[in-house]
Hints:
Blueprint: H1 2-21, E1 82-88, E2 93-96, E3 105-109, E4 114-116, E5 120-121, E6 124-129, E7 132-137, E8 143-149, H2 153-164, H3 195-207, H4 215-218, E9 223-225, E10 235-238, E11 254-260, E12 263-266, E13 273-276, H5 279-283, E14 285-290
Antiparallel strand pairs: 1-4, 1-8, 2-3, 5-6, 6-7, 9-14, 10-11, 10-14, 11-12, 12-13
Amino acid sequence: MKKLALLFVLAALAALPLAACEKPVPPAPPRYEAAVPPENEEYPGNEEGPEKEEVPEDEEDPEKEEVPEDEEDPVPGKTPARTEYVRVLADGLRVRAGAGTEFPVLGAAEKGVLLPRGEKSGSWYTTSYRGKTAFVSADGRYTEPFFLGRADERTERVIAEGCRLLGVPYVYGAVRFHDGTGLPLKGFSEERFDCSSLMQYLFFRGADVLLGVTTRVQVKQGHGVEKSELVRGDLLFFTNAAREHNAGIERVGHVGLYLGDNYILHTASDYAKIEPISAKRWGYFLGGRRVL
């Protein structure tokens, strides 16, 4: 019994120094694997909040999108701001029935006048002359493109009627288209006009406006316009050498259609034409009238 107890004590004493000398072994740290962020995430140090998200450089806010400088909103029915003409640079320019020197000559135009310009056919411009389609040379020695401002559609219809009749001979006292009230007159022809019969015809055909049968009636129609306020489509009234010393309305002796930039469409002593208003004619100017 004593022997068994002694063995138990010795075993206990033998174990005591070993426990006192050992250092505690800390628990093994948990094992970590390299973190692989999901494809749609970034490391915390590179994250930005939603408020700081930037629009890619090649995108813009749709509300701030600008129309390219060379584009404009198309405007249905928009008309050009100017009207195209041919300016004659040499006296006696031949107006032909076709685009070539082999075609018949319809007439001639003097230096400085304007003709309406249509499409170009080879080395020829399409134009209008005496109610027909005609052609003039596009050679820069004889003609050049020219432009005048454009008015409203109604005014342009009146002017277009006049351009169609360029070249028609002047005949003093030519039969009018109507009697001043719209009643047609017998004997009228598009082959001859004087100044007031031409204006009456253009305004009736182009704008359904009834003008009187003479300049001294027409000068009372519409409302007066000062020279500084003239616009395309106004009527211009003049006196002349035979009437300048008359009194009142008897001074009126000529009428034409103002086209702007000092150009007039009228017929005086030879044929219907568009030409610059000379200083001499301005010296006879009495006033303008606006009937449109």
